Amino acid sequence: QLQLAESGGGLVQPGGSLTLSCLASGFLLDYYSIAWFRQAPGKERERVSCISAEKDKTEYAESAEGRFTISRDTTNNMVFLQMNSLTVEDTAVYYCAAPGPYSECDGEFYLWGQGTQVTVSS
User: Fold this and answer.
1) Exposure letters 56-86 (e unless 16+ CB within 10 A, then b)
2) What's the mean pLDDT in 42-58?
3) What is the pLDDT, as a whole number, of residue 33?
4) Quick check: helix, strand or coil at residue 79?
5) Cα–Cα distance, 122 to 119 (Å, whole number)
6) Which of 18, 60, 75, 83 could form a disulfide with 65 if both were Cys (CB 3.0 to 4.6 A apart)?
7) Mean predicted confidence (pLDDT) in 37-62
8) Distance (Å, whole) CA 100 – CA 95
């Protein structure tokens, strides 16, 4: 089966850092754009970042710009989200997601992981 699995979530203090991992199974990430989304209770789902299948172009939500970095490790079939200077507002379940092969970050994301909880609290 085609699967995405997130890991790396946990409890972190404000101002701290955390790196999330997204492992792809059943397909090669080389041909896929991968996005990180997050959803907090009572809030709309937000796309945090995306790395394009074309030239590894990246984009970030305004809330993440300058603090988060998305990267790809094709050898290990993984995508990472490095999060720095975390605040309470970053608390959410974080998901990685993919569109169809060769689709860019403006495509429809229909393959999703189960999510990993990130809690920012003192």
Assistant:
1) eeebbeeebeeebbbebeeeebbbbbebeeb
2) 94
3) 96
4) strand
5) 10
6) 60
7) 95
8) 17
Tell me: the pLDDT tens digits for 10-40?
999 999 999 999 999 999 998 999 999 999 9
On whether the CB atoms of residues 23 and 4 are closer than 8 A, the answer is: yes
Q: Where are the alpha helices (DSSP H) in 7-90?
A: none
Decide: 2 and 110 in contact? Cβ < 8 Å. no
Give ∠ CA 24-29-34 in degrees, rounded to 5: 85
**Alpha-carbon span 70 to 8, nearest angstrom:** 14
Cα gap 33→45, rounded to integer Å: 18
| Bridge partners (DSSP) listed for residue 71 | 80
Kindly state the tokens that stand for 81.
């989200």
